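CHAIN AND CONFORMATION:

***
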Amino acid sequence: MRARALLAAVAALALLAACGQATDQDPDATGDSGGDVTAEGVEGTVTIYAAASLQAAFTEVIAAFEALNPSAFVDPPVYDGSSTLVTQLTEGAQADVFASADEANMDDLVAAGLNDGDPQLFATNTLVIAVAPGNPLGIEDLTDLADLDYAVCAPEVPCGSATTELFALDGIDLDPVSQEQNVTAVAERVASGEVDAGLVYATDVATRTDTMEAVVPSAADEVVNRYPIATLSGATDASQAFVAFVLSDDGQAVLAEYGFGAP
């Protein structure tokens, strides 16, 4: 019940914050599926590079996509920090679909000329302070981290950039004991008890309620990560169909179950 309540609160928070932000993207590239646009019966293999925070949700999305398209197969996805993935792709790694945890890294990929289709927003996410179950240290906001050991994402990673912005809004100096290359690594450090707390996405805590819980920072709704997805050069019908599925009502329903807000 606690997990369901957190998921509902996260989705509502992200949606409200996203609605309050302006975007200069083409209205047709906002991730609005306009209904169920899944493409059934496609064939081929899809290779996906996706932000680490998407792993749990995409595992279910991929299973549903393959069930709908028995002749399509998705290779085991590569999950990591979005900036790391863009570096790998620009250095020659081969993929059909890229899903980023922020627009800045997608912009870098587009600038490198690696995209095939236009990037489309498909989800939003916000940061929380991950703490041990029961919050034994009584952490209530960012100010309570001053004398504690806490971990964050590296500044070049979307969750790290958002963390830097969140601390700046509160006028607090960022002084973590470690800066990780993806949000999963931060969550694992909290879950293992290596650190007292960590700045992660709300969705990361929602899938680990047995090992941590979330404290929502006071300015969380002012820092919203918007997730774009795009097919890459030489995109196949199968990869285009996968992106369409992510944007569809069915794909969006799965993402909502894991606490992601609407685009």
In short: Residues 125-222 form a domain with the D-Maltodextrin-Binding Protein; domain 2 fold (CATH 3.40.190.10). The chain has two domains: 2-124+225-257, 125-222.
